[in-house]
Amino acid sequence: MELRCSWDRDDTVALAISGGVDSMVLYHLLKTSYRDTFGRLILLHVNHGQRVASEAEAAHIVNMAAADGITCETVRLDIEKDDFSQAAAREARYQFFDGMMVRHGARVLLTAHHLDDQYESVMHQLLTGRYLPGRMGIPYAREEEGYRIIRPLLRIPRAAIEAYAGRHRVTYFEDESNSGTGYTRNYIRHNLMKDIRASEHLQPDQLLKLAEDLGEVDGMLREEAAGFISGRQVLSRKEFNKRRRISRIYIVNAWLASHGLGARRRYIEEMLDVASSGTAQAEFPVGGRLVVIAYDEMRIEAGDSVTLHHLDITENGMYSFNGYEITVEMDPSELPVRVRTKEEGDRIFVPGVGTKKLSRLFIDRKVPKDERETMPVVTGRSHQIIAVGIIYNIMKTRGNHSRLSVEKGVRQ
């Protein structure tokens, strides 16, 4: 199996090793066929603490590394099951990786993403509306502060990796959560991609060609957006609305980035809809500041003291509320929902117990008093509380689909 190697022979290389077939095969390759391509190898393992089997898997990796004479650093994430999310886990993983890369002076972090991951990523971006602005798919390499992330298996399909594991008797572990379809990516993997591969008329590699084409479009639109905002602190609403819609998305994205801000595409599209409507004035909170659309101007103002107290959501989409990102993917019959701050007498429903005061929940979950004043409380059509920040949510999933997601401080 041929790896794409972009590191030097004297580099200290770290491998993020989960115990799954992809990372265990990559480890086997690094200690055999590719052992002379780097100076030193260290292993970094994150135990997410969500499965009983994860403890034994972590122990196996530590013992394996010791037997091979290779340094292995591990961490067990302290995230309660009720608070666990893919975003929270990713943030915690990279905090660990950042620290370990500095400790060991490592210049390269290897991850075991493969070709199937690439297909799934492109599908996920397409079907969730996250494909622009930005290039599609998983990049082969990405610069982090002080080190590079490289994915040497990115051109290799999972079937080839599994075949290699069989030939070389590589021990690996299956995460049973990967076989479920509760997470969107798992649903794409086990349903959409499975059917695409089964059809003789569909070609998965066309997804990569689409990603390449859109990558070139992305570059052109970035240049156009940079030219539009160059030297401007305040944008002309009239001139802005003369541009094509896709160009306006890029302009807002670049404009926010120039102020150290960022927002998801759906939220940017809401700004576009208001800017092109007859609405005279509107404000959009972004990262502690305000995007203000007023008459013929669009500007960004300080908004540190601004706290939203209510937001009515009448259609599915992505919304910001006091530093939280709320994604709604509900049946139209369940809308509208209201997002607000806490009110006197608020109670939540606890299965098998009954109702419980929201104030008690805040105490039990050790929520700081100042945060209680701004945390989003989401109510449904019957005015029942269906979510509270990231600490309570009775609407997370139905079948294979996420219905209501509330996240805070998402790291991209």
TrEMBL record:
ATP binds at residues 18-23. It holds the Pfam family TilS_C. Belongs to the tRNA(Ile)-lysidine synthase family. Residues 337-406 form the Lysidine-tRNA(Ile) synthetase C-terminal domain. HAMAP family: tRNA_Ile_lys_synt. One of its GO terms (cellular component) is cytoplasm. InterPro entries: Lysidine-tRNA-synth_C, Rossmann-like_a/b/a_fold, TilS/TtcA_N, tRNA_Ile_lys_synt, tRNA_Ile_lys_synt_N. Ligates lysine onto the cytidine present at position 34 of the AUA codon-specific tRNA(Ile) that contains the anticodon CAU, in an ATP-dependent manner. Cytidine is converted to lysidine, thus changing the amino acid specificity of the tRNA from methionine to isoleucine. Keywords: ATP-binding, Cytoplasm, Ligase, Nucleotide-binding, tRNA processing. GO terms for biological process: tRNA modification. It catalyses: cytidine(34) in tRNA(Ile2) + L-lysine + ATP = lysidine(34) in tRNA(Ile2) + AMP + diphosphate + H(+). This is tRNA(Ile)-lysidine synthase. It is an enzyme of class 6 (ligase). The N-terminal region contains the highly conserved SGGXDS motif, predicted to be a P-loop motif involved in ATP binding. It is found in: Cytoplasm. Its EC number is 6.3.4.19. One of its GO terms (molecular function) is tRNA(Ile)-lysidine synthase activity.
